[in-house]
UniProtKB/TrEMBL annotation:
Source organism (scientific name): Candidatus Uhrbacteria bacterium GW2011_GWF2_46_218
Record keyword rRNA-binding present: no
Gene3D superfamilies: Phosphoglycerate kinase, N-terminal domain (3.40.50.1260)
Record-listed (2R)-3-phosphoglycerate binding positions: 39, 121, 154
Annotated gene: pgk
Full protein name: Phosphoglycerate kinase
Short name of one Pfam family: PGK
Quaternary organization: Monomer.
Binding, ATP: 204, 323, 351-354
Positions with a binding annotation for substrate: 22-24, 39, 62-65, 121, 154
Length: 394
């Protein structure tokens, strides 16, 4: 898949560039939580490139789920502050999207300046992929750049309908993700190891099915593994699992049982407190009152052995209850092992829940691709149509 991208020789000075980024990061005490390789930080690199060429940049992003109405807690002001720090210049803001205030703010922009529109999801028509709203957005710019891969699995106005109204291009972040993910799908080097965790079977199953003919092994952990264990008739105690996914897991085990590697031992607790007493037990020794919160040491070692031999690695989803640090050991060790394979292997990592572990370990810049989108990555790898990306194809 080849996408339309901006050429370095394209004259941008004085052009109004409408750019969609994904700055949907946690906001704590009024501050955007965004590390050196965070979503905003990575977008800032591409925004700076446009600034250096004298473009007048109008940024669109969403934050949280305001459901089409103004919610002060989801204002993008903290995003503007973070961008200002990164770009070393004041990013202007406006409390509007396509209204008269926004239009005037765009008119006042000078070459090299940046304006951040208010949360695009404050507008009730954003999620409706609305042609009328798309025309209003397009009127703000001379050209449009989509650099928000993480929201491209859903056709919404600011990533899809808008492409029909204005010359549109893929941003560097989006283009990079598509290129590397396509390589993993079409030309993976063997051994190809797929590592999957998290909870929902419905999002992971299509990826496993699509990649199964190409992968050497599928390493399954986290709550996803609990559904597979349940399908085998094993005791998982009070552990979280996708009840509706058990039948699908059973069918998958029939189709590709030899390729799917499940935990052989696990860490269990009686409560989800960080100071709860932990026990390592074999997978046949889980008791009815236990909660599985991590993969055990034998499982970690088996997974590591396969990862250390891999030439292509794709990982999505935590392998334990990693929101609580004492239960993140398996996820941390897998994150580190995959990082160490980069260079010798194509390494692709995605899934928002693994982010804090990856950041704490200092692994954020140590993968071939740290995907900005968990859901979008899964959709792309599963082969489903992604209209916002299809619209940018050459």
């Amino acid at each position: 898949m080849k996408l339309r991208t901006l050429r370095a020789s394209m004259p941008l000075c004085g052009k109004r560039v409408l750019m969609r980024i994904d700055a949907n990061v946690p906001i704590k005490k009024g501050k955007a939580v965004d590390g050196p390789q965070g979503r905003i930080a990575r977008s800032a690199v591409d925004i700076d490139w446009l600034m250096q060429r004298g473009a007048r940049i109008i940024i669109m992003t969403h934050l949280g789920r305001p459901e089409g109405k103004f919610v002060s807690a989801y204002s993008v002001a903290p995003v503007a502050k973070r961008l200002s720090e990164l770009l070393k210049t004041k990013v202007k803001t406006v409390r509007g999207i396509v209204d008269e205030k926004a239009q005037k703010a765009v008119t006042r922009l000078e070459n090299g300046e940046v304006l951040l529109l208010e949360n695009i999801r404050f507008h009730p028509l954003e999620k409706k992929d609305d042609p009328g709203f798309a025309k209003q957005l397009a009127a703000l710019g001379d050209l449009y750049i989509n650099d928000a891969f993480a929201v491209c699995h859903r056709p919404q106005t600011s990533v899809h309908a808008i492409t029909k109204e204005i010359p549109s291009y893929a941003g560097p972040l989006l283009a990079q993700e598509v290129t590397i993910l396509t390589k993993a799908m079409q030309h993976p080097r063997a051994p190809f190891v797929l590592v999957v965790g998290g909870v929902k079977m419905e999002t992971k199953l299509p990826v496993i099915q699509r990649l199964l003919p190409r992968v050497s092994t599928v390493l399954v952990g986290g709550a996803l593994a609990h559904a597979f264990l349940k399908a085998k008739g094993m005791e998982i105690g009070r552990s979280v699992y996708d009840k509706e996914g058990v039948a699908q897991a059973a069918q998958m085990l029939k189709e590709a049982g030899k390729k799917i590697i499940l935990p052989e031992d696990v860490v269990v607790v009686s409560s989800l407190r960080k100071d709860a007493a932990k026990r390592v037990v074999g997978i046949t020794e889980v008791e009815p009152k236990d909660r599985i919160v991590d993969i055990g040491p034998k499982t970690i070692e088996r997974f590591l052995t396969l990862i250390r031999e891999a030439r292509t690695i794709v990982w999505n989803g935590p392998l334990g209850y990693c929101e609580i640090k004492p239960f993140a050991k398996g996820t941390f060790e897998i994150a580190e092992a995959i990082a160490k394979r980069t260079g010798k292997a194509l390494t692709i990592v995605g899934g928002g829940d693994t982010g804090p572990v990856i950041e704490e370990g200092g692994f954020t810049d140590q993968y071939t691709l740290l995907s900005t989108g968990g859901g979008a990555m899964l959709t792309f790898l599963s082969g489903e149509s992604m209209p916002p990306i299809d619209a940018l194809e050459i």
